[in-house]
Amino acid sequence: MTVNFGTHTINYPKLELVSGIILVTGASGTGKTTLLRVLHGILKADGPIPNVEGSSSIMSQTPTWIPYLRMHEQLKVAGAQGVDFTSLGLDQLVRRFPHELSIGQLQRFSLLAALHVDSELLLLDEPTSALDDDWADKAIELIENWSIDNPLGTVIVVTHDERLKKAFSAAKRFEL
Predict the structure, then answer these.
(1) Phi, psi for residue 138 in degrees, rounded to 5
(2) What dihedral do alpha carbons 168, 115, 117, 44 form, nearest 10°?
(3) 124: which of 8, 29, 42, 140 lies 20 to 30 Å off by Cα?
(4) Which strands make up the sheet holding 20-25, listed edge to edge?
């Protein structure tokens, strides 16, 4: 698969989308985020892309929040259903606006949104980068649970985080 940006081209090795968790690692600037955007349909690739069955849900590394909507409204707009805000300690923050929250709190909301959109392909871009160890452990647990609850689903996690690499050491790896 090839992605072109004017004079810049990224050539990806073959990626098989298998059920379970796939870790995508590599140096900054190698196209990890771009890969997620192509798989989600935000960007176009030249040539065939891995067969994406059903819908996908994406957690962006830098999500865009609507400044005048409270967080519970943001998740509704994103299509998230049945969100358990207590799972990531956000139940007391659902009525706040994005500017009233820390980066880590916003990251937890973003992860919950991605996890609660009905999809068969879950695309997570650095889902624990702004989280302390305790919240990272909870996030890892939720990602694992999503994979268990969706046995035919695929989770692709782009990360530099050693905590994720350790937690998902048995996962398939894709190095860029």
Answers:
(1) -65, -40
(2) -50
(3) 8
(4) 56-59, 121-125, 154-158, 20-25, 172-175
